[in-house]
Write a structure and sequence with these properties.
The chain is globular and about 60 Å long. α2 packs across α8, α2 runs antiparallel to α10 and α5 runs antiparallel to α10. Helices cover 78% and strands 0% of the residues. The two termini are 31 Å apart. It is an all-alpha fold. It has one domain. It has 10 helices and no strands.
């Protein structure tokens, strides 16, 4: 496949993947809707950091181990599932106990947990502990690498394309969430938002644990 054709074809595939609602969408919308713009962008950057690492490792052939070793895949799968269920359970527990969600500050009072760094950690862990992202790259990325070319450089170029599309879509999500910020920051609305997001995240964790 010619490099130009590969770039356009891969953009179509990952563009559709980016637009599909999922865990990343839920995290970005929830964080931004609560008014934590810095943390929301941290989540976005963390997710894209994970994407970059998956793309680089796939280009080097390292993530092929996930498909070659069932044990390696299962370890990462269970770690990711436990992390997602823990996050979801924390959100749900705090709403029923009348406590603010983890990392949430009172109105007008920022904390270290409302920073770009805190969001980056959450986004990076969420992405890297999802072996399905690695499996996607192992299955899809090699199909777009030109025969006989520099696979690592081309792999990074394709991954950068995915990251760019992710950043553009995240900008749209954050802008949309900010339009609803005033309504969603009301105590009752925040409880419902956290219950919905916590349920979605925990459900993703359970689904990951039960997946083959």
């Amino acid at each position: 496949m010619e490099p130009t054709t590969a770039l356009w074809s891969f953009a179509l595939v990952v563009g559709l993947l980016t637009l599909t609602p999922g865990l990343d969408t839920a995290l970005i919308l929830r964080t931004s809707a609560l008014g934590h713009r810095a943390r929301a962008w941290g989540v976005v950057l963390g997710i894209q950091t994970g994407t970059l690492l998956w793309g680089a490792l796939t280009s080097l052939g390292v993530t092929a181990l996930l498909t070659a070793s069932q044990l390696a895949y299962d370890i990462l799968r269970w770690a990711g599932a436990a992390y997602l269920v823990w996050i979801g359970a924390q959100m749900l527990r705090n709403t029923f106990r009348g406590l603010p969600a983890a990392g949430e500050a009172d109105e007008g009072h920022a904390t270290a947990e409302d920073s770009v760094a805190a969001g980056w950690r959450q986004g990076t862990l969420t992405n890297l502990l999802n072996p399905k992202v690695g499996a996607f790259y192992v299955a899809v990325l090699p199909q777009f690498l030109p025969t006989g070319g520099d696979h690592f450089t081309m792999g990074l170029l394709l991954t950068g394309e995915h990251i760019l599309l992710g950043l553009l879509w995240s900008t749209v999500l954050i802008a949309f969430a900010r339009l609803l910020r005033d309504q969603l920051r009301r105590p009752r609305a925040r409880r419902y938002l956290d219950r919905l997001t916590g349920t979605v995240i925990a459900a993703f964790g359970v689904r990951l644990a039960l997946s083959n």
